[in-house]
Design brief:
Layout lengths: L1 E5 L6 H11 L6 E4 L10 H9 L5 E3 L3 H6 L10 H13 L2 H9 L5 E3 L3 E3 L14 H13 L6 E3 L7 E6 L2 E6 L4 E5 L5 E5 L13 E7 L4 E7 L3 H10 L5 H8 L2
Parallel strand pairs: 1-2, 2-3, 5-6, 6-10
Antiparallel strand pairs: 1-11, 4-5, 7-8, 7-10, 9-12, 11-12
Helix pairs in contact: 7-8
The structure holds fe (ii) ion.
Fe (ii) ion binds next to loops.
Length: 252
């Protein structure tokens, strides 16, 4: 099976459309979303309508912004621009899209008895995995989970990255450049972040996504240019905080 891995779309329809255009001719069996469909940018309904009508089967879990927008969480931990954008989004969501967000399951979830998905981390949907220490606690948790899986995909940090559990420690890799093919080795375990579609934060402004081939045991990372200036203009026109548009041009 070949899975398209998307995370942190954040209401950025230009970025989402560009990724879908890039993979249009690729053989894909399912589309996975690791949460944060909405928040920050100005096209929440377009992004959700597009995802909900994709011609392939989809699997999705909720992100922290989805929770706040769907009024499951009050957003007390959010910074002011994030909270303002979440409130703005709630006021504009269609009834169908609000219900869709509200019903998104909590991660971690196991897909096709094959791999796990979560938003922040397997232990806590709101926690980040940035370091080998963060990863070590989560590998310990994954090692005890049933069914046992060797790979878990996560989002939330917006940084394409790979944490590998090996017998003598944990290897950390920030995925750089436009393309990277990771081969999953037997006897190792992996926490893999495909990066963010709608708000990359690794100083590379191009949209980030990955494809997991569960037979080949490979994860292929890719970056796609999109019209970030147009996304920024929409954010400014909507009266959302300008920083949310400016950061898209820099990948911050
Ligand atoms: Fe996010």
């Amino acid at each position: 099976m070949r899975y398209l891995l998307l995370s942190d779309l954040h209401s950025n329809d230009e970025a989402f459309s560009a990724v879908l255009a890039r993979v249009k001719r690729k053989k894909l069996d399912k589309v996975i979303c690791l949460g944060d469909f909405v928040g920050y940018a100005a096209d929440p309904n377009k992004v959700l309508d597009r995802f909900r009508t994709l011609p392939r089967p989809t699997v999705a879990i909720r992100g922290n912004h989805d929770k706040v927008v769907a009024a499951i969480d009050g957003g007390e931990m959010f910074n002011p621009p994030a909270l303002l954008a979440a409130r703005w989004t709630t006021e504009r969501l269609s009834k169908e899209n609000f219900e869709f967000l509200k019903r998104l399951p909590v991660g971690p979830a196991v897909v096709d008895d094959s791999f796990a998905i979560c938003h922040g981390s397997p232990l806590d949907e709101d926690a980040y995995i940035f370091s080998d220490f963060d990863a070590s606690m989560n590998f310990a948790h994954l090692n005890r989970a049933a069914p046992a899986v060797d790979v878990c995909f996560f989002g939330h940090s917006h940084i394409p990255s790979v944490f590998t559990w090996e017998h003598d420690g944990i290897r950390v890799e920030a995925v750089r450049g436009s393309r990277r093919r990771l081969v999953l080795e037997p006897g190792r375990r992996y926490l893999v972040n495909p990066g963010s579609v709608g708000q990359p934060r690794d100083r590379n402004p191009r949209a980030s996504y990955a494809i997991y081939d569960s037979e080949e045991k490979t994860v292929s990372f890719d970056r796609v240019s999109y019209d970030a200036r147009s996304t920024r203009s929409k954010i400014l026109k909507a009266g959302l905080p300008p920083v949310l548009g400016d950061r898209l041009l820099l990948g911050l």
